Amino acid sequence: MRRPLAAAATATALLATLALTGTANAADPAPAVSRIGDTRLDSQALYFVSYNGLVNNNSFQKNGLLTYKGYQYAAWYTADRSAVVARRPLGATTWQTVKLAHTLRYDDSHNVISMGVSRIDGRLHLNMDSHSDAFFYVKSNAGLLDNPGGRAWTASEFGAVQTTLDGLALTSQFTYPQFVATPEGRLQLSYRVAVSGNGRNALAEYDGTRWTALGEWTASTGTYTSEHGSSTARNMYLHGIDYSADGTLHAFFTWREQNGAVMCNGGGITNHDTGYVRSTDRGRTWRNAAGTVVGTTGGADRVSVNDTGLVVDPLNPDHSLMNQESQATDSASRPHALISYVPGRFGQCTTNYVGDRTANGRVFHVRKDLTTGAWRKTEIPVPLNSSQRTKLVLDKYDNAYAIMPYGRIAGASKASNYTDWKVLFDGSGLNAFGEVVVDETRVAQDNVLSIMYQQKSSGTTPSPIHVVDFALPQ
């Protein structure tokens, strides 16, 4: 009997220590979800499958769904290919809709609509319809989001659709717009310059008066060598770009090599390694996890595959590692990420990217360990059953939620140091196609998890698009 008693005493002491240090609290509620509503945005949303995804529901959108000052905003393409933006007061069951003066050009699921809010002047910004080419940008009138109840939701509240940022031309090869608000209320735009396998990440910033190009901060040059071969060009795919409570800007990423010679088989994908960088000066200077400067935005020295201290989880290109998965930061400003790939127990060489991920893909939670501060990875024991991405959300107790393809939700508690993952919602009744869009901003405001999803269809037959709401622990 001594061993169980000793183990129990050790566990009790550990929980007490964690509570004293503020890193865990055994009294906090466990992760849980309770479905409280489901509203339909559009009965006839645009539907086509491209790159295994939908243009209205690519989880790397930042943001396709967001909340600000008691209202929620959503953007999508309707059946006639028009860009639409809608709003509702939180808790309302109907949405007000505005059709913007832009129609989607191609059947390409990369050409998403991303939204951002510049708190400094209360504007809503949208960037849309780009994949290594032109982008289309529109912003609302000043103050529209500061007094939503007192302003009509009409097309006249939005400016003209532009192919620049108010006259600032960025690049002729633009992809992956992601808006992020700075702690001061400015708005930054993260994007990729050039193409997959040979591209660079860059930033622009809006100060309430004008946009400024901050410049590129990653390099596509350098040499990466695997056991199979070498590559001299690549791009960094971000899992996200987010400010934490202490004002640090965090970015997890994976590299994609241009040369397929680095893979064991041409049916896989050249993504490798999970890396991490951070900035404490609003994205001007980038450091590795140890604090060493590894790049300067707009400078000659940019973050490169050959920089040391970037990799937090090493993985070669033979496991179909997903790019642009998900990340979040907790209340103590610690970075967390989700990544997914085919673990080695299913073989050391994927030969069919989609098929192997669907059959054997698994999702992993990467974060700083609560007790040691070292990087730690935990497998979520739920088969991916998809080639697509999973989103990460942390509630006000820092419990973690993985929103998986088809709207399935798994959760793990902070009290367990994120080791007790289990399914909380199996997606029943949604009939969701695959990836979903998560309102990352709403959880922080009222601890409700909102998910935008589109129902399965066939061919190019339009289908309904919805927002489903789940209450998290209060």
Task: Please give a structural write-up.
- InterPro entries: Sialidase_sf.
- Pfam families: BNR_4 (PF15892).
- With 474 residues, the chain is mainly beta.
- It has two domains: 1-30; 31-471, Methylamine Dehydrogenase, Chain H (7 Propeller).
- Helix content is 7%, strand content 39%.
- The protein has three helices and 32 strands.
What structural class results from the helix and strand content? mainly beta
CATH class of the largest domain: Mainly Beta
The CATH level-2 architecture of the largest domain is identified as 7 Propeller
Largest sheet: 5 strands, antiparallel
Number of helices: 3
Task: Calculate the mean pLDDT score and round it.
Answer: 94
Unreliable residue stretches: 1-22
Strand content: 35-45%
What separation lies between the terminal Cα atoms?
39 Å
Count of strand segments: 32
What coarse outline follows from CA principal-axis ratios? globular
Q: Main attributes?
A:
five-stranded antiparallel sheet, single chain, Methylamine Dehydrogenase, Chain H, four-stranded antiparallel sheet, disordered N terminus, mainly beta, 2 domains, 3 helices, 474 residues
Brief description of this entry?
This protein is mainly beta.
Write the layout of secondary structure elements.
Blueprint: H1 2-21, E1 34-45, E2 65-68, E3 71-77, E4 82-89, E5 96-103, E6 113-118, E7 123-128, E8 136-139, E9 174-181, E10 187-195, E11 198-206, E12 211-216, E13 224-225, E14 230-231, E15 234-238, E16 242-243, E17 249-257, E18 271-279, E19 285-287, E20 293-296, E21 311-313, E22 326-329, E23 335-341, H2 353-360, E24 362-368, E25 375-380, E26 391-394, E27 400-403, E28 409-412, E29 422-425, E30 437-438, H3 442-446, E31 448-454, E32 463-471
Antiparallel strand pairs: 1-32, 2-3, 3-4, 4-5, 6-7, 7-8, 9-10, 10-11, 11-12, 13-14, 15-17, 16-17, 17-18, 18-21, 19-20, 22-23, 23-24, 24-25, 26-27, 27-28, 28-29, 30-31, 31-32
